[in-house]
Each structure stands twice: as structure tokens, then as C-alpha cells.
Amino acid sequence: MSKIKNYNAELMLLEEKIKASENIIIVPHYNPDGDAIGSALALCLVLKNAGKNAKVISPTQYPSFLFWMPGRNYLTVLGKKTDSNHNIFKDADLLIGVDFNALNRIKNVEDRFNDSTAFKVLIDHHPNPDNFTDLLFSETEYCSTAGLLYEIIENTYLKAFIDKDVATCLYVGIMTDTGSFSFNSSNPNTFRIVAELLKYGVEKDIVFDRVYNSFSEDRMRFMGHVMLNRMVLFPELKTGYIYITAEDRKVFKEKFGDTENFVNIPLSVKGIVFSAIFIERDNFVKISFRSKGDFSVNDFSSKHFNGGGHINAAGGESYKTLQETCKKFVSVLDEYANVLKNYKY
Ligand code: 5GP
Ligand code: MN
Question: Among 212, 242, 265, where does a domain finish?
């Protein structure tokens, strides 16, 4: 159910700070996903509609399946080599972080965010947020930051400024963070929020098509290769993983975002409840974990792979080689053999 009533004091303070601010900057996490970008753009657009000077600064590039999003012209993507002396937040009265729970999740702008004298707000749905803002809206109960953000907007004067574009951005956040309502979406409040958004004219079928049916031929063949040649299953342990080499990425002309959702592939095999992907990047191995039920990949990742996230979706990193990383995973898996063998879902 909705948790927004617990935030009356915070909502009043947020409204006061927004009204008193001229320049507002919104920051999603690095490598932003549909929820981070959808939430950031929705907030930017609703603030613009309310007459504020708002913009989004993304630490790194966002995936091409979101290039059509309303409000994208108000979004600046920083390159990895931004001048560290350049104060990108210098004009901001108000800084609002969306969809992250720790400063290191905004990587290349971490210091500048922290050093800014602007009033800082965080809106997020990850567990255990760090204390680095003046005002915090954090509820794991919500399927997405976008869902929580809708209720924040709904309960302030900004509600009058929601339009179809704002609603579309919020819908993208909710749709992508629930895998199009296939997980994390049993809370009836999620569907109440969606019903409200649809009233603003969101074209949900078209949004789905733009986000999920926008792959290049190379990406589809890449997925075929991965399923055929790069998936390792341990049916006894109800676990599967995928590994992708740098060579694979080259052969299939990988574009940013192409490997998004590959991690879910093993979970489509009957009986598999825990899956991982290891992608050989330039200086490290990018890792994602997914699970079904109450096996916490957040705990698994923070314990063994320098990462974190949610109970059923987490990321991590390894600075070993791809082969060593996979080997480590398999040996760590041994410690969970009993839990996984007897796991009921
Ligand atoms: P992904 O596998 O898509 O990178 O991440 C899955 C989820 O975990 C996302 O919600 C993402 O924000 C979060 N996540 C990914 N990597 C990390 C990490 O290193 N630390 C934390 N705290 N969260 C992460
Ligand atoms: Mn999210």
C-alpha cells in the first residue's frame, strides 16, 4: 500500500524548497536505466511546467531504447573525462538525486554533488540509503523510484502540472523496473498509480514497443549467440550464469545497452531461480545478479562482488579476469548449495 502519508513533513519541506528555488538540477545514477531516466525526466518536466528552470545531468550515457523519451532535450550526459574543476552544479539552488542510495552510484560527479552548497534531496526505492542529503524520500515498498515520485508529485502543488509527457516518463520507470509488470509489482498501489497515469493519455502499447522492440539485428543475433554458447546452467543448484567476452562484444558490434536484460535469460529456464551475468569490460568485469523469491542477490553481491541493489536485482564489479570471476562465482555458489537445492519458489 501507499507509504506517502508517512512523509507529510518531508512533502511540506520539499514543496517549500521547490517554490523558493530558481534552478533545479536532477541527477540519476550512472549507467542509468529506465527508472532512473524516467524519474529524472518526469521530475524535470513537471518542474518546468511549474515555471522552474530545471535540467537533468546524467553521469554517463543512457540506453538508446530511451532516446525517444519526452524531455530528453533537457538532459545533459557527462562524458567520463569531464573537467573535474568545472562546477556543473554551481547554479543549482536545489539538487535532487533519483534512483540511487549511495554517493558512489553517481561515480564521476560524486565529489561535486557532495561539495555543492545547494539543498539536496534524494528520492529512491533501494534498501539502506546512505545519509548524504538534507531531505530523504526512501521506500523499498515501491516497485520503482518513478512510482514513489508519482505519489510525491500527487501530494504537492506539482500535481496540477502533470501532463501526458510527465506521465509517460513515470510510466517508463514503472514499466521497466517491473519487467513490464512481470516482477516486483504485486502491490495494488502500483496499479492504482498506473491507472492514474493512463488518465493523462499515456500510450502504453506504443511505449512498450519503443522500449522492448527496438533492437538492432546485431543485438538479436548477439542474444542468440549468448543463449547457445555462453549460458551455463546448474539445474541442481537452480542457478545459471552467462559470460560475455570482449571478443563477443566486438563480433556483435555491441552498442551501449545491448546486454541489458541478458541476465534474465537463465531465469526463463524452468526451475532456475538465481542467475548472474559476467561481462568483460575494458578494465573490469561488470556483474549483474537476478533472483526469484527471497534469495537476496543484494546480500550476495555486497558480500562477494563489491556491489548491491535490491533483493531480486543487484549489480557488482570484479577486477579479476573474466575466467577467474566466473570461477570465483562457481566456488562461492558452493557455500549456498544447501539453500539453493532446497529452495522453494
Ligand atoms: P544492474 O544489474 O542492472 O546493474 O543493477 C540492478 C540493480 O542494482 C539496480 O537497481 C541498480 O541500481 C543496483 N545496483 C547495481 N550495481 C550496484 C552497486 O554496485 N551498488 C548498489 N548499491 N546498487 C547497485
Ligand atoms: Mn529503480
Answer: 212
Nearest CA to ligand 1 atom 13: 309
d(CA 165, CA 100): 23
Same domain? 123 vs 255: no
Q: Per residue in 226-277, pLDDT tens? A: 999 999 999 999 999 999 999 999 999 999 889 999 999 999 999 999 999 9
Cβ atoms 340, 239 nearer than 8 A: yes
Q: Which of 181, 197, 212 is the last residue in one of the domains?
A: 212
Which residues, other chains included, contact 319 with Cβ-Cβ below 8 Å and sequence gap of 6+?
283, 284, 285
| Ligand showing the shortest atom-to-Cα distance for residue 38 | 2
Q: Which three cell numbers stand for residue 95?
A: 539538487
Please count the residues of the chain. 345
Q: What is the CATH number of the domain that holds 248?
A: 3.10.310.30
Q: State which residues form the domain around 312.
A: 217-341
DSSP 8-state secondary structure symbol assigned to residue 128: S
- The neighbourhood of ligand 2, an ion, using CB within 5 A, equals 35, 99, 144-145, 177
Residues 150 and 295 in one domain: no
111: Cβ contacts below 8 Å, ≥ 6 apart: 84
- Count of domains in the chain? 2
**Three-state SS at 197:** helix
Cα–Cα distances (Å) from 219 to 104, 198, 260, in that order, read 30, 31, 10
